[in-house]
Amino acid sequence: MKEVVIITGAGHGIGRGVAIAYAAKGSRVILADVNEEGCQETLELLPENTGEIILTDVSKPEQIAHLMAEVEERYGRLDVLVNNAGVSAFKPMDELHVDEWDTIMNTNLRSVFLGSRAGARLMRINGGGSIINIASTRASMSEPDSEAYAATKGGIVALTHALAISLSKDSITVNAISPGWIEVENYDSLREVDHQQHPSGRVGKPSDIGRACLFLSSPDNNFVTGENLVVDGGMTRKMIYEH
Predict the structure, then answer these.
(1) Catalytic one of 22, 75, 149, 241
(2) Could you confirm whether 187 is annotated as catalytic?
(3) For all residues of the chain together, what is the average pLDDT?
């Protein structure tokens, strides 16, 4: 049977790039997102009969439970879970309402725990699997007015290694990926200076994260668990001074 993969936030950007990577590999890809139009656009980019949509708002625990119940009913298994869905609100802390903070926390961080817990139950059916959590380089470096988003991404990194230890007995690997600048809108509009500030010589693409997911979820790489793979063109290793 084909490998079954759930990707949250698959209606746009990195999630779409990850979905394309797994579908090209031949996996059965579940597009889990609140954005139905975006998911339809993603689905049209996949080879025929490789993907399907299960509308899911990961900020709501009952919808995560519904997603996993549907996958279990249809396939009876889950091999890979990519917790990618996320939201942000970059605004001064004095203007950030507590409800906005809670929405970001529930969507970005709580959903990773709830999704991983429910997904692990399915993975145990077939003796293991792989969970990949999309964090961010903002877990370790920041711009102003990014407190809520940074807190969730730092939390994802810590949660990843905790889950990796707890789920090791079930042959489930758990890793995080921290993307840097991944251009998801119009790559051709980028300036040369945007590319050249990266040690890699270019800004990242969603396909870069897709390939990283394929690496981490490959059974051949099950010696890698509890890690945070930074995919940022080298930017977090670059000293930057103003002259």
Answers:
(1) 149
(2) no
(3) 96
